[in-house]
Write a structure and sequence with these properties.
By secondary structure, the protein is of the alpha/beta class. The chain contains eleven helices and 15 strands. It folds into two domains: 171 residues, 2-Layer Sandwich (Alpha-Beta Plaits), CATH 3.30.70; 166 residues, Rossmann fold. The relative contact order is 0.11. The chain binds S-adenosylmethionine. S-adenosylmethionine (SAM) binds next to α8. The site of S-adenosylmethionine (SAM) has 23 residues, from α8. Catalyzes the 2'-O-methylation at nucleotide C2498 in 23S rRNA. It is an enzyme of class 2 (transferase).
Length: 362
């Protein structure tokens, strides 16, 4: 029985499951879900096992909001002996295929975390054995198929693969970012991850570069502003709350104590609009689309708060509202949403228009 295994934040299994089931059905692929609360893992068992690879290729992982990483199973759960685990794994794989990389993974839970040392230790002889058998290519390149070994304990593993061109480059889809000691709040990691995730590195020179102007709505105490300042941008930070002195001292920040829903920039020179206001998601979504359509910014990065239940459904509705506004003005656009690792009860959205001016009066 083949299944697509998806990794998500523990507690979001239902949302991740609802999403893969719906998006698979759009591609005429059907199956049933196996969910276990707070496991951080979703199994989508395929009615027709042959359709697994179609799905891996057809749905861009970037289009899945709640899945951080995924793979198609090659085996069911294998019971490993206490000794010769390496042999048991290589035998289970056979010699059918060459993979370009091996990912040793666990669920993102406390039990999973306690296995990370075991995984690191086992990885060394396992890689060696897989290379010897030519199951793993000698030089890792990320475009080939990636072999996943998902450990539930030291004696239980599921093996599978993903396509290197359509999976996360990070183990379990989790980027490990270092909290910068000068940043005024931990929220800073959210925007750092968002830039890393949504903006291709070879475009940072034009899209995330010094000299650009940015507006940060709901900026206090300045974790997001910090990410813009450290990239050399000039920032207008909007919030009734105070901004960290260290940011004001850079000379790159103007602080305005006004309502983020009423502020309109005087000049059309803003490149980035970022927004972390804790507000109704529909209100934020409408505001972001309005800024883009008016030409008040070129790109927007913002959070949408999630409800307690039916989170996938709610995000779909919020995104649909933005799409409807763009459709009304017949503009081409890019719109992606992701439940990032550093997000909790919110998703991060990136939006930009691909159609240049004329802009609209709204
Ligand atoms: C989660 S905090 C922002 C944290 C900030 N991004 C950081 O990294 O330090 C949300 C902020 O939104 C502000 N806020 C909420 N509603 C607002 C509004 N209508 N106008 C301006 N700021 C608002 C709050 O004052 C609060 O400081």
């Amino acid at each position: 029985m083949a299944a697509i295994v998806l990794y998500c934040r523990p507690g979001f299994e239902k949302d991740c499951g609802a999403e893969i089931q719906e998006k698979a059905a759009w591609n005429q692929v059907y199956g049933y879900l196996q969910l276990s609360k707070n496991s951080g893992i979703v199994f989508f068992h395929l009615n027709n096992p042959d359709e697994g690879e179609v799905l891996l290729a057809k749905i861009p992982l970037k289009r899945l909001i709640f899945a951080r990483q995924w793979f198609l199973t090659l085996t069911d759960k294998i019971e490993l002996p206490e000794y010769n685990r390496v042999e048991a794994i290589t035998e289970a794989l056979g010699q059918e295929w060459q993979y370009s990389d091996l990912r040793m993974e666990t669920p993102d839970t406390n039990d999973g975390k306690s296995l990370s040392k075991f995984c690191r230790k086992l990885a060394v002889p396992l890689r060696q054995a897989l290379r010897q058998k030519k199951i793993l290519s000698a030089k890792g390149d990320n475009d080939g198929a990636i072999l996943h070994a998902l450990f539930f304990s030291g004696s239980e593993v599921i093996l599978g693969y993903s396509l290197g061109t359509n999976s996360s480059e990070h183990v379990m889809g989790i980027p490990r970012l270092k909290f910068p000691s000068q940043a005024p709040s931990r929220s800073t990691l959210k925007l750092d991850e968002a830039f890393l995730y949504f903006i291709p590195r070879d475009e940072w020179d034009t899209r995330l570069t010094s000299g650009l102007h940015a507006v940060d709505l709901g900026a206090s105490p300045g974790g997001w502003t910090y990410q813009l300042v450290r990239r050399g941008m000039m920032v207008t930070s909007i919030d009734n709350g105070p901004m960290a002195e260290s940011l004001m001292d850079t000379g790159q920040v103007k602080h305005k104590m006004v309502d983020g829903f009423k502020y309109v920039p005087a000049k059309k020179n803003v490149y980035w609009l970022v927004c972390d206001m804790i507000e109704k998601p529909q209100r934020v979504a409408k505001l972001m689309a309005t800024w883009l359509l008016r030409g008040d910014c070129k790109e927007a990065m913002f959070n949408l708060k999630l409800p307690m239940k039916g989170r996938y459904q709610q995000v779909q509705e919020d995104l649909q509202m933005i799409k409807d506004m763009f459709a009304e003005y017949d503009v081409k656009y890019e719109l992606y949403a992701k439940h990032l690792y550093y997000d909790r009860e919110e998703v991060t959205v990136h939006a930009r228009l691909l159609t240049p001016a004329p802009y609209f009066e709204l």
